[in-house]
Write a structure and sequence with these properties.
249 residues, Arc Repressor Mutant, subunit A, two-stranded antiparallel sheet, 9 helices
Length: 249
């Protein structure tokens, strides 16, 4: 009994050590979002940040909550979504390493308009609101970078609204698969490097889970993709682009 307790204590200490090593030496100077900051501003930013490791399934913040800062994603994947009247999720985006989340509601000083949930073990750094405000007020280049990010998000929202209104579910699913390829890349076997449930795909496309299951099966039969559990392999990129009614590829 004593040896078992001692073993558990040693493992606990080692885990604490590993967690500290993964957060205490993080430097945000490599973040593209902070490229315009001076050395002194970066030093202050790194001092004021708080980094935390999150397990899959953890909620970072909930819709309607008051935010105290925004988050930089160091590793992992975060799902950002809104909840409808019927409790159904509408996924707004998937954020990955190098992205920031929770800044729009923070800037407008409103309650969080979305919920964020970890779908792949992640490490996030929290930047306090006062730090963000100070950078905006004193660094014009940083303010412009922030404005560009907000405008890009607005552009994506406008495009999504247009897609919902004008494209079929089949077209939207093909486009979502292409966007996931762009944002998360594929491995040497052309398999998407993000694993989503059928429900998550449906909540991204804006349709029922049953429709996604049927359409994925059709895409497989048409030799556009291959399926291995949650993994989706892109077989025919031009064909998928044609289905999505895009000309990008």
């Amino acid at each position: 009994m004593y040896l078992y307790g001692a073993k558990k204590f040693i493992l606990f200490i080692l885990n604490m050590k590993n967690n500290n090593e993964s957060t205490e030496d993080i430097n945000l100077s490599g973040f593209r979002f902070f490229k315009s900051l001076s050395e002194e501003e970066l030093k202050s930013l790194n001092f004021e940040k708080t980094c935390t490791a999150y397990k899959k399934g953890s909620i970072i913040y909930k819709e309607g909550s008051r935010l105290t800062g925004f988050y930089c994603i160091i590793r992992g994947i975060v799902k950002v979504y809104k909840t409808g009247i019927d409790g159904k999720e509408m996924i707004i985006r998937f954020a990955k390493k190098g992205d920031i989340i929770a800044y729009r509601s923070l800037l407008s000083q409103e309650s969080a308009c979305t919920t964020s949930k970890i779908i792949e073990d992640a490490l996030l750094c929290h930047i306090p609101y006062k730090t963000l405000l100070n950078l905006i007020e004193k660094n014009p280049s940083f303010s412009l970078a922030m404005l560009r990010i907000v405008c890009a998000e607005l552009k994506e929202a406008n495009e999504y609204i247009t897609d919902i209104a004008q494209k079929t579910v089949r077209e939207r699913l093909a486009e979502v698969l292409l966007l996931l390829k762009d944002n998360f890349d594929v491995d040497a076997d052309q398999t998407l490097q993000i694993s989503l449930t059928r429900e998550e795909l449906a909540n991204t496309v804006g349709t029922a889970t049953e429709s996604i299951i049927r359409l994925l099966s059709e895409f497989k039969q048409d030799k556009l993709i291959d399926l291995q559990g949650r993994k989706i392999k892109i077989i025919n990129l031009p064909g998928l682009t044609k289905v999505a009614n895009l000309t990008k590829y």
